[in-house]
């Protein structure tokens, strides 16, 4: 056996030596002493849109679907397993819905008639089930009006698919009129597909509304707050901004279905439920049970931005419904309420507690301003109708808030007539920041790393607001978060970083998706009812965002930027806070590349850190079974004089970090 083993080792060594001997060798130069331009703190951020069940059923930790019975089918999400809905005389009971028309925002409630003292039950299915964890505590709340004290007890239980009880509590309803009740109980085992069973003891009628269930363990332990594991993934990225609430969801399929921020603040119970515009958008993945309760509203978005240390970037309707749908327009003479919404939002975010909207913010628990600096007008609108409306918004906002930075849009595509017209007109208007979107093939991202090299340095700054490599085609249900997409985005991002003088903000899109309830792929984060993980694309974004730096410095090959020559892409920064020089290298080749980086201008410590993100197969991706299959590895390395020598694996993203003396 020994001779064979020695032979194998020798052959392996010869093969490796031959492989590295044939690897591409490249000499790069980095000028560490001279700043090309400052990197904006907002360079890498996140964009949240309520698509793929990202809010209700996702980030917002509410576990009850249709908690206030306001869906178009008022009992959607609720079952009555022991009720004959066609007979009031022979059944154990029946639940129906009643509309109280005097309540404009939450008119429906559930009226339950119990005929059998042994118990009538209702079951809520949750958002594709409810994820519960053994020994974790859950907080239930509901409103009830117990007519004539008919119902003696309400029993609340977690059950599994076999109706086994996985935790139990109870409430004794004591009032004839509406009253709120709370209870807490503990799950006895972990279950991804639990449901909530509510059983009534007694005979007679009881009215129910706002039946709500949250884990006690939420982000920052906020009552009825956000899912801790999802926010943690965002927090770990150290995003410079949070763009919200969309996306096409801002516009709505119709103007009546647009996102109206004023309906998403104040008392959660008074926030008006709205059908989600992605409800039936795609025939490949209809979601008729997709609604917005707005428990995650504008106050919560601002609060989340603050938690993440990110600048809030709200986007508002400009009076144009989605042009891919109805394209409905508000007449120019009726635009004032839309403009006023923008002015009032700034007051809500920044106004003193003596102002009407500042007082609303304060009463919600945040007396201090949110320090809003950016506001977006429209999402992906295009054409003369958009420019005409943008002018009105820009004039009004600047008149009252001259320091507010306005983000405008160049339409849904990164080229073509819509784009050319929009950019031309916005330049004439001296627009401050223009939002560009691109959903393209991995090859496009590699080929467009030089996109911003030729942009006018005196023109508008750029917000790369939505981008993601599409492995198959735009909006295809077969798109994957594969490694080729991820490293191709990294190659493109070196171009964004190299042009930081023009590009001030960037964000991948969409941000997240429910494993079973998605509409659009690919997505940065994936979650189910119990777990969440970052895709390979997430680790690319995180690697760039956490190594953003403060100053762009030049990295060149033969005096020219490294933009894909021999399938190599590069950018370099220094960080005045951490006193580091950071070099980002992307090898999109199927073979390794030997790189010598000559670091000139600043004395550096001899020991550095090298972080590598790689995978041998273009189709590799992370999953619930293997959530960190593609994730960074870190090790030390030593400078040789002023040179950093390293071998870049095939299909890899590498970050070199060196401390300045």
TrEMBL record:
Catalysis: reaction(s): Hydrolysis of terminal non-reducing alpha-L-arabinofuranoside residues in alpha-L-arabinosides
Top-level division of the source organism's lineage: Bacteria
Gene3D superfamilies (UniProt xref): Galactose-binding domain-like, Glycosidases, Golgi alpha-mannosidase II
Record key words, sorted: Glycoprotein, Hydrolase, Signal
SMART domains, per the entry: Alpha-L-AF_C (SM00813)
InterPro entries registered for this protein in UniProt: Alpha-L-AF_C (IPR010720), ASD1_cat (IPR055235), Galactose-bd-like_sf (IPR008979), GH (IPR017853), Glyco_hydro_b (IPR013780), Glycosyl_Hydrolase_51 (IPR051563)
Coiled coil (UniProt feature): none
EC number: 3.2.1.55
Signal peptide: 1-23
Residues annotated as domain Alpha-L-arabinofuranosidase C-terminal: 465-652
Similarity-based family: Belongs to the glycosyl hydrolase 51 family.
Protein name, entry field: non-reducing end alpha-L-arabinofuranosidase
Organism whose genome encodes this protein: Flavobacterium algoritolerans
């Amino acid at each position: 056996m020994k001779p064979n083993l020695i032979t194998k080792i020798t052959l392996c060594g010869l093969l490796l030596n031959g492989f590295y001997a044939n690897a591409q060798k490249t000499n790069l130069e980095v000028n560490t002493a001279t700043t090309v331009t400052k990197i904006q703190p907002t360079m890498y951020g996140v964009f949240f849109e309520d698509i793929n069940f990202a809010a209700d059923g996702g980030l917002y930790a509410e576990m009850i679907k249709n908690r206030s019975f306001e869906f178009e089918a008022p009992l959607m999400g609720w079952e009555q397993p022991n009720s004959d809905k066609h007979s009031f005389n022979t059944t154990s009971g029946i639940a129906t819905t009643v509309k109280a028309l005097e309540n404009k925002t939450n008119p429906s409630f559930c009226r339950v008639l119990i005929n059998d003292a042994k118990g009538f039950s209702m079951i809520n299915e949750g958002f594709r089930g409810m994820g519960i964890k053994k020994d974790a505590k859950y907080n239930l709340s509901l409103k009830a009006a117990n007519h004539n004290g008919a119902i003696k007890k309400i029993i609340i239980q977690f059950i599994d698919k076999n109706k086994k009880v996985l935790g139990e509590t109870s409430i004794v309803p004591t009032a004839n009129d509406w009253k709120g009740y709370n209870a807490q109980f503990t799950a006895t085992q972990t279950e991804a597909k639990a449901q909530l069973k509510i059983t009534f003891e007694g005979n007679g009628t009881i009215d129910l509304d706002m039946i709500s269930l949250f884990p006690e363990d939420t982000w920052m332990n906020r009552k009825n707050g956000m899912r801790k594991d999802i926010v943690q993934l965002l927090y770990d990225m150290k995003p410079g901004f949070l763009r919200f609430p969309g996306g096409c969801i801002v516009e709505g399929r119709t103007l009546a279905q647009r996102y109206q921020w004023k309906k998403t603040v104040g008392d959660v119970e008074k926030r008006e439920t709205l059908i989600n515009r992605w409800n039936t958008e795609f025939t490949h993945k209809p979601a008729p049970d997709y609604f917005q309760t707005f428990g995650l509203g504008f106050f919560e978005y601002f609060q989340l931005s603050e938690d993440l240390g990110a600048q809030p970037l709200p986007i508002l309707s400009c009076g144009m419904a989605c042009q891919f749908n109805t394209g409905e327009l508000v007449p120019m003479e009726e635009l004032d309420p839309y403009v006023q919404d923008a002015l009032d939002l700034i007051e809500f975010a920044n106004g003193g507690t003596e102002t009407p909207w500042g007082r609303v913010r304060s009463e919600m628990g945040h007396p201090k301003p949110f320090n809003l600096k950016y506001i977006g007008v429209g999402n992906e609108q295009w054409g003369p109708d958009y420019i005409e409306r943008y002018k009105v918004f820009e004039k009004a906002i600047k008149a009252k808030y001259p320091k507010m930075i306005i983000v405008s849009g160049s339409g849904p595509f990164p080229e073509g007539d819509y784009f050319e017209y929009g950019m031309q007109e916005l330049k004439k208007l001296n627009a401050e920041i223009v939002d560009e979107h691109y959903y393209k093939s991995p090859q496009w991202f590699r080929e467009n790393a030089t996109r911003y090299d030729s942009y006018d340095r005196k023109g508008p700054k750029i917000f790369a607001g939505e981008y993601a490599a599409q492995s198959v085609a735009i909006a295809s249900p077969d798109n994957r978060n594969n490694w080729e997409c991820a490293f191709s985005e990294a190659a493109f991002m070196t171009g964004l970083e190299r042009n930081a003088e023009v590009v001030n903000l960037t964000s991948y899109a969409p941000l997240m998706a429910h494993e079973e309830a998605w509409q659009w792929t690919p997505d940065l984060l994936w979650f189910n009812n119990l777990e969440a993980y970052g895709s390979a694309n997430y680790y690319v974004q995180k690697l760039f965002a956490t190594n953003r730096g403060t100053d762009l410095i030049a990295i060149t090959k033969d005096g020219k930027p490294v933009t894909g020559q021999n399938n190599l892409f590069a950018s370099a920064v220094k960080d005045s806070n951490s006193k580091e020089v950071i070099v980002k290298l992307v090898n999109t080749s199927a073979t390794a590349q030997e790189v010598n980086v000559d670091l000139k201008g600043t004395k550096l410590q001899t020991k550095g850190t090298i972080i590598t993100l790689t995978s041998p197969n273009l189709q590799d991706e992370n999953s619930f079974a293997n959530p960190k299959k593609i994730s960074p590895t870190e090790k030390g390395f030593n400078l040789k004089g002023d040179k950093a020598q390293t071998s870049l694996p095939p299909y890899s993203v590498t970050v070199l970090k060196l401390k300045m003396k």
